[in-house]
Amino acid sequence: MTAALEHRVERLVRDLAPQVLGAMVRRYRDFASSEDAVQEALIAAVTQWSRDGIPENPRGWLVQVAQRRMADQLRSESARRNRESAVALTTPHAVVPATEGEPEMDPDDTLVLLFMCCHPALSPASAIALTLRAVGGLTTPEIAKSFLVPDSTIGQRISRAKQTIKTSGIAFVMPDASERAARLGSVLHVLYLVFNEGYTSSSGDELHRADLSNEAIRLVREMHKLMPQNGDVAGLLALMLLTDARRFARTGPKGELIPLDEQDRTRWDAEAIAEGVALCSAALAMGAVGEYQLQAAIAAVHDEAPRAEDTDWPQILLLYDMLMHMTDSPVVALNHAVATAMVHGATAGLALLEPLQRDDRLSATHRLDAVRAHLLERAGDREGAVVLYRKAASRTSSVPERNYLTTKAMRLLE
Amino acid sequence: MKYMMILNTPRDGYTQYMNWPKKILEANAQFMQTFTKKLAAAGELVGAEGLASPQEAKLVRAGKDGKPITDGVFAESKEFLAGYWIIDVDSPERALEVAAEASLAPGVSVIGADGTTIDHLWIELRQILGGHKDLG
Q: What Cα–Cα distance (Å) separates residue A165 from each residue in A25, A31, A66, A118, A172?
């Protein structure tokens, strides 16, 4: 077995997983057992193909094996019921599906599967775990490692999610147009959370967490292929690419945080930026502009500046103005204040922060203090900045961020 | 987001606990088991442990030769760690909810020696430090 073959097999299996699962669910209408059967087929495929090579029709192979596993499951289930029920002694059961042929494939199956896994009835954590497993083809231990929790925790989240889907009676069909828009919102949000989790550089297992960002990008890319005319999908893909492009420049050799204006821009991924910018422009041209497109556009303006001082802040401020009309997110309001400070001066930015101090949603975070410290520093109030940098440092739940804010305060005291 | 829920006990907490009526002790064991099982089933439990009595605790540090020097527990300590849960939840609100539920142990009202009902336990809730997010 060569490493290259093994790698190709893993990629292929992961790509085919949602298609096979989609086909199985459409046929058997039972998400939980279909998922188990497909999971077993995927494991069998990795072992067998890595040893004997990839079969001519890998998708058909997977479906065949999954169907056989499903038949086995149904058979043992029925045998169990037979043992438990006296009536069964006289009632023969049909346990094998009528045909063993390949059910027709529908590219929309992947989408339906995503809609199912990201159903609003599921908690975000459950939806994330289920999506990564069912659509992403990741194993439970892989997902557990990514979130730094025990396998059993993720296992429970997945089985609970499957149970919720079963009891809610969500049918495996494309939701109708009116519902699709709302459901698409949940799907994109879940994928955004997956990306964010991966992008969070942790003192833990960084490689695995980076994998989560790649997985999120891969899934949104698949969605974009299936619905190329959807501006929100294109916008989210652009946002992820434009953010991920800075991944290698945003932390120093010791894992320390490097803010955007101090990053070595030659380390940004030019290819990802080019793709993100093109996608973003196309998404903005599709009409109805949503939050993801605007966030992507802001990321694009940053990424297109060769040096921090070349950043087109008036344009960024304009984009934040638009975002402010679309959402009441306090985080957007904070960023809007920063952009205002960059265009009209620190005092103007600080004035915008005033009302935010009464916003309960920010009172539990360190963000407001950190932004105020930053603007006070720009306005020349070193003492005020030190106090707030330290306050923010003591309140953040992120180690690199805490170190960054503490260092900022220390430098001002020198 | 991950949190540690910390259960502290006063200095004589373990002795008091030993003197609880059998019924309350059983109710407490049942409560803890059910509560922890429920957290696990929800996929929110990362880990949980209870600690042995602080009477057996040792304070340890390295001496000049690097060998351990031990001492008893600080006499002035008013409270000791009795146990903890680590949970992974969707929101700070959910963490508060879970901690409040933990504080209900032993699940039945405990009447103290002076005839008054003992209040629910305080649970200390602390967020666990993680990495850094640029988005959201």
A: 12, 8, 21, 10, 10
pLDDT of residue A238: 97
pLDDT digits (tens, 9 = 90+) for A244-254: 999 889 888 88
Look-up of token digits 């073959």: A5
A4 at B interface, C-beta within 8 A: no
| Nearest chain B residue to A331, by CA | B136
ipTM score assigned to the predicted complex: 0.75
Contact A156 B1 (CB under 8 A): no
Residues in chain A predicted with pLDDT less than 70, given as ranges, are 1, 83-107, 200-210
- The structure tokens listed for A103 are 């059910």
- Is residue B132 domain-resident? no
B135 falls within a domain: no
Is B88 at the interface with chain A, CB within 8 A?
Answer: yes
Q: Which of A214, A210, A116 is nearest to A165 (CA)?
A: A116
pLDDT exceeds 50 at position B136: no
Domain total in chain B:
1
CA distance A402 to chain B (A): 9
CATH number at residue B10: 3.30.70.1060
Domain range for residue B26? 2-127
Q: Is B132 in the A-facing interface, judged by CB distances under 8 Å?
A: yes
Q: What is the mean pLDDT of chain B?
A: 84
Residue B59 lies inside a defined structural domain of this protein: yes
User: What are all long-range contacts of A134-141, with beta carbons under 8 Å and residues at least 24 apart?
Assistant: A134/A17, A134/A18, A134/A21, A134/A35, A135/A17, A135/A18, A135/A21, A135/A110, A135/A219, A136/A14, A136/A17, A136/A215, A136/A218, A136/A219, A137/A13, A137/A14, A137/A15, A137/A17, A137/A18, A137/A42, A138/A14, A138/A215
